[in-house]
Amino acid sequence: MEGSSATGAAGAVESLSISNSQDGQSSGSSIPINQLTLEEKYQIVRSVGEECIQEDELRNLLEKKPMPICYDGFEPSGRMHIAQGVMKAINVNKLTSAGCKVKIWIADWFAQLNNKMGGDLKKIETVGRYLIEIWKAVGMDMEGGKVEFLWSSKEINERAHEYWPLVMDIARRNNLKRIIRCSQIMGRSEQDELSAAQIFYPCMQCADVFFLKADICQLGMDQRKVNVLAREYCDDIKRKNKPIILSHHMLPGLQQGQEKMSKSDPSSSIYMEDDEAEVNLKIKKAYCPPKIVEGNPCLEYIKYLILPWFNEFIVERSADNGGDKTFKTFEELISSYASGELHPGDLKPALSKALNKILERSAACERTLQKGCQCKRSVKKGQGLQSHQMTRSWTFLQKGLCCPIRIFQDIIFLCCALAALSVLWY
């Protein structure tokens, strides 16, 4: 068994194709968790991250803890692009197939602090519920409580006595310069003019890791700095068990030189509600120079979306152009592309077809949008949907059964003031 562990691990990762599942639900790994070796579990979990801090800690965690807790999160801030919709589903399914429990933090208060949806909590909640429905539809494996969605406003209100002292302690132990360096997590730069709320945001996100009792921080590379801050905080408080950072790859925009997708440039991304014509047009215009592999967004889409979803990439072409070809690995694909044997004129239509199949396959995406087309319009325009359920929960909030926004803002102001005074004092 030991001699075949590498082969077995590779097979375990390859068996994770979402397209093998039925009725739109992901099957996860075809190998039962109790039959996976430690090496197979490690390879599955490790395959999620472009970077892992630290690999030896991850291996040790998987050996000692039957169900590690992975923390992921998102700001409900508008339309969902395909990386957020599909890549997250793929990554979550890999983690759950290896025995992990995934806690997804719906950062509604954080979105308000970051002035998303104009800071309107009602609209933010609408978007949050909309995005959850898309994940369900796309095939995220939520059976048996493997995935738990937690609203930050609700959880923090219920355990405020735990949360705010932790946030203030993190703020007290870090100077302003260190916190501003984390501004990338909000989609801001260190040079941007930040509000007091946005300066406090990294302290809160750092606290989330401990508040959720996370063993693994599974976020994008753009969240790396605040995750490192959490590990540094462990050093400050002499805590031995540090959260493991598993940072996934950030898909680039479709145009040349775009390091990541941008919601301000719709042509740079494929969105979960894009129709076939929109997908075809965006891929047709995408940057994809012949024989160039480095910085080619079309190849990255195939590597991180198509191959994990289908376990293959099929190119249909005429006999004069070499005939149809099926690529099983990314290495095989880039070898063919770099040599010129595979031309962008054949690759792009094949990519468009595969992407449209995914969006079709996530019939939820379509069914949800058709069933609630007003919600689709609301998210696109940044306006909330006045559904009965959401109106009820907003009324519940207004009645004061949850912490009113005004009190929350007062708490933030007080905490910022205390943090600033402690920095000046020390």
UniProtKB/TrEMBL annotation:
GO molecular-function terms, A-Z: ATP binding; tyrosine-tRNA ligase activity
Biological process terms in GO annotation: tyrosyl-tRNA aminoacylation
This enzyme's EC code(s): 6.1.1.1
Record InterPro entries: aa-tRNA-synth_Ic (IPR002305), Rossmann-like_a/b/a_fold (IPR014729), Tyr-tRNA_synthase (IPR050489)
Top-level taxon of origin: Eukaryota
Record has ATP-binding as a keyword: yes
Gene3D superfamilies named in the record: HUPs
Catalytically driven reaction(s): tRNA(Tyr) + L-tyrosine + ATP = L-tyrosyl-tRNA(Tyr) + AMP + diphosphate + H(+)
Chief location category: cytoplasm
Subcellular location, record wording: Cytoplasm, Cytosol
Keywords: Aminoacyl-tRNA synthetase, ATP-binding, Cytoplasm, Ligase, Nucleotide-binding, Protein biosynthesis
Cellular component GO terms, alphabetical: cytosol
Membership in a protein family: Belongs to the class-I aminoacyl-tRNA synthetase family.
Protein function: Catalyzes the attachment of tyrosine to tRNA(Tyr) in a two-step reaction: tyrosine is first activated by ATP to form Tyr-AMP and then transferred to the acceptor end of tRNA(Tyr).
Stored NCBIfam families: PRK08560.1 (NF006330)
Protein's recorded name: tyrosine--tRNA ligase
